[in-house]
């Protein structure tokens, strides 16, 4: 099962993990103080026994990597729950100001009431890999799969909701939070198709009076990183705007097509700089870049062109890079125009 070893008694597990659990608890407190500016947030700490009891010591259905939806798992006043196992997170103190699961829990507690984030219940740090607990309700969650989302309006709606979540991180708190973890894998859809931005463990805050922060480690998902982030490890709000621009282009083209059209694979493997979709914007060439799996209405092609132009503004190819709030507003306007 990965994070519960049957052959060891609970007493042995407790004895072996006490120092680690204490360290994780201290990091949670540090993250709360750093992120929340002293404001209290409700976070419940569950024991391993509580989690195992709630899930009847087994997991009913694997839905997507590192997540398990508890079809009959109940906890906290009999509400359905969704667990996320933080598999792959280093048990050692992390680099920079990214504190992994503690940072994820702290910031999740701050954004929990926003419709485009998961609603946090609490966490359990007694397993080998930390477990974060969300309310599941009656919602069935699934990752974004562009092979199944063939409606352009649905893809635009996902973009608008993700942009809204990023804008919230940038402007809702005394210090902006930069998500810096853009990618299809980190967006969940509930049963109504509402997008939820997830995994906040890479968030960093911009110090008061500053516009950026410099890290000693950039990360590894180069698809969504601008040059200043990759080469200089400088993180600002523009880091998220750039990553979102790439995300928009993948919504337009499909993930596989994006690789072929822009040559990102060649860039990573052969150090050849990628090209952008602007080279395909000549008269009548939009059809060459649109994901062939999508079912389109004729009037939607104009929305696609505006969508592409906005994505290139985010990437920095068309004048000044917009703020995330502006991007969300523009996407909202485009959706209304298409109604």
From TrEMBL:
<dbReference type="InterPro" id="IPR011009">
    <property type="entry name" value="Kinase-like_dom_sf"/>
</dbReference>
<keyword id="KW-0067">ATP-binding</keyword>
<keyword id="KW-0547">Nucleotide-binding</keyword>
<feature type="domain" description="Protein kinase">
    <location>
        <begin position="64"/>
        <end position="315"/>
    </location>
</feature>
<dbReference type="InterPro" id="IPR045274">
    <property type="entry name" value="WAK-like"/>
</dbReference>
<protein>
    <recommendedName>
        <fullName>Protein kinase domain-containing protein</fullName>
    </recommendedName>
</protein>
<dbReference type="InterPro" id="IPR001245">
    <property type="entry name" value="Ser-Thr/Tyr_kinase_cat_dom"/>
</dbReference>
<dbReference type="Pfam" id="PF07714">
    <property type="entry name" value="PK_Tyr_Ser-Thr"/>
</dbReference>
<dbReference type="InterPro" id="IPR000719">
    <property type="entry name" value="Prot_kinase_dom"/>
</dbReference>
